[in-house]
Design brief:
The complex is a heterodimer of chains A (91) and B (478). Chain A is built from two helices and three strands. Chain A is 44% helix and 26% strand. In chain A, strands 1-3-2 form a three-stranded antiparallel sheet, with helices on one face. In chain B, the strands form four sheets. A six-stranded mixed sheet of chain B has the order 10-11-12-13-15-14. In chain B, strands 2-1-3-4-5 form a five-stranded parallel sheet. Classes of the chains: A alpha+beta (91), B alpha/beta (478). At the A-B interface, strand 1 and helix 2 of A face helix 10 and helix 11 of B.
């Protein structure tokens, strides 16, 4: 754990249509958290129909902002892909 | 060390040549004709600063467009004339009515007509994009910086002009192309500082909740337009909005407070189901002018551009010009008052056009807001830009907004970047459709406008649909 007071902590929750969709998105985004970026730690938890994303960053608040933005973009992409596949299966 | 592309090198070399020609002409009295918008005002301020330091007398006149009557008046002056942020669209008219040896055009709009024998600097003639690489004030900068010793103020003004023309289309809302050279030179001289931060309007001067509520470049449902809700929102995040009974501004927030605000806003917007792109709108690259005191309008590039923009739109370009040249007294106070009135007008017009039933008409390829009688014509362009900036990023329709002024209708057109990249041209759409109903049109590929007879709206919209269909067909073929 970093001890510097300049570390920014953030927690973001994203609620999905149902728990199975949340689980698919969670499992798809999980591997990215293992990426090693200096000054950034991230993890997520699955809570029923929610994903709780937590990050700690010592690269400044705007770096954190772009990390969150990319995370949200990633989530949206996967969510849209799943929904498109569902539609294709059940026209 | 800056590395230029071949096109940039050719543009800069032409700028030096024009500067040399202006210098060697030994003109003692010059007429400056500038476009009546924020970019044009900044372009004129750069020229005025240079001419003043060279000891050349000048007279500056703002214009919305160029017509025969105006050219006749200019011809009667028989002085050398420098067109700033305007002129490229009227090359044949200028050549036929003025002495080409006494004309200089510094503009970034697409040229129309024959430019031979006219001293002109235009990025489009060098394979650059006048819509995103450099603004009119940037073009003015690249010429006039060669005629003065200290051009640090000029680099700030060129950044103001580029931001006013919404050229912050690079990564993280940064300026790119030739604009990035201007920024680099400003940073080198110490007059510009580049940071990443929230980009809410008034980050230097307004109370935080007012700033969040007034940011019309992007809309956060529930917060935009409602200061009380924004205030409660900040309080719920545990952010102190006042210090010693004084409202705090964005620039006074600590990193920890900014993180709390960022998380709170992102959570709020995610809960509303807004796209990540909408969320990203709240932060980006900011340009800070270090020579201006902290907490003032002129310290932040976007606030400065908004001030000049409101002066120009409300018909007070001369006040904006004085402020851009460094006036800090009564005229500066007047400019701030105009800016406040302007914001109220934008907000009212926007609210009208978005809420009045029947104003919105959508077809397969066109989204049209009829603002006749409900949108003030002075704020038509910002209203169109605000609506446009809040459309989804994958939106692929052409946006049109109208406003009535006397017996004419003004039309503002916006084209999604994706379509422009594929080859769609808003300027062609505006000029071709307007011509069909006896009006005029012009502008850029991404943002254009037209003026048409008030009773010809239906014919104009039919011509728009036809031209859009034609351009889409050509895109498909390409």
């Amino acid at each position: 754990m970093w001890k510097s007071s300049s570390v920014c902590f953030v927690k973001l929750e994203k609620t999905f249509r149902d728990s199975s969709l949340a689980r698919i998105v969670y499992l798809s985004t999980k591997p990215d958290e293992s990426l090693k970026v200096k000054g950034l730690k991230a993890c997520s938890e699955l809570k029923d129909d929610k994903i709780v994303f937590k990050a700690a960053c010592r690269r400044g608040v705007m770096s954190l902002a772009y990390t969150l933005y990319e995370y949200l973009q990633h989530i949206m992409l996967i969510e849209n892909a799943v929904l498109t596949l569902e539609e294709a299966k059940c026209p | 060390m800056i590395c230029y592309s071949e096109a940039q090198g050719s543009f800069i070399s032409k700028a030096r040549e024009i500067a040399g020609r202006i210098h060697s002409s030994n003109w003692d009295d010059v007429l400056l004709v500038f476009h009546a918008d924020a970019d044009g005002t900044a372009a004129a301020a750069i020229a005025c600063l240079a001419l003043r330091s060279m000891g050349v007398s000048f007279c500056a006149k703002s214009v919305k467009q160029i017509d025969k009557t105006m050219l006749e008046k200019i011809a009667n002056y028989s002085k050398p004339v420098i067109f700033l942020d305007i002129g490229s669209g009227y090359l044949d008219e200028i050549k036929s009515m003025l002495d080409p040896s006494k004309v200089v055009i510094l503009d970034h709009h697409e040229p129309e007509g024959d430019s031979s024998n006219i001293l002109m600097l235009n990025p489009n003639e060098h394979g650059l994009n006048g819509g995103s690489d450099v603004s009119g004030s940037g073009v003015s900068y690249f010429v006039f910086k060669n005629l003065v010793d200290d051009y640090s103020r000029m680099s700030q003004l060129a950044v103001v002009g580029a931001l006013a023309d919404m050229q912050d289309t690079g990564p993280k809302r940064s300026l790119s192309g030739l604009n990035s050279i201007i920024v680099f030179e400003g940073e080198e001289s110490g007059s510009i500082m580049v940071e990443e931060d929230f980009v809410f309007f008034g980050r230097e001067t307004l109370p935080i909740h007012v700033s969040i509520a007034s940011s019309s470049n992007f809309i956060i449902p529930g917060l935009t337009g409602d200061e009380n809700v924004a205030l409660n929102f900040l309080t719920s995040l545990g952010i102190d909005v006042k210090k010693d009974d004084t409202w705090r501004t964005f620039y006074s927030l600590s990193e920890a407070e900014k993180t709390r605000l960022l998380t709170g806003l992102m959570q709020y917007m995610t809960d509303l189901g807004l796209s990540p792109d909408s969320v990203q709108n709240i932060f980006g690259t900011v340009y800070v002018f270090t020579s201006e005191p902290k907490g003032t309008v002129l310290r932040d590039g976007r606030e400065f551009s908004a001030l000049l923009n409101s002066c120009a739109r409300m018909g007070f370009s001369h006040i904006g010009l004085a402020v851009a040249m460094g006036e800090k007294g009564r005229l500066f106070e007047e400019a701030q008052k105009i800016s406040r009135e302007y914001r109220v007008l934008v907000s009212k017009s926007l609210s009208n056009v978005l809420s009045i039933p029947g104003a919105k008409i959508e077809s397969e390829k066109v989204l049209f807001y009829n603002g006749e009688g409900i949108v003030d014509p002075r704020v038509l362009s910002p209203v169109a830009s605000i609506i446009f900036s809040n459309l989804p990023k994958d939106f692929e329709k052409i946006l049109l907004v109208t406003a009535a002024e006397d017996d004419v209708l003004k039309v503002s057109i916006r084209v999604p970047k994706k379509l422009v990249q594929k080859g769609f041209n808003g300027k062609i759409l505006a000029s071709s459709a307007a011509r069909r109903v006896g009006g005029t049109g012009g502008g850029h590929d991404v943002a254009s406008g037209a003026v048409i007879p008030r009773r010809r709206l239906q014919g104009f919209m039919e011509a728009v649909e036809k031209n859009v269909e034609e351009q889409f067909r050509m895109l498909r073929q390409a």
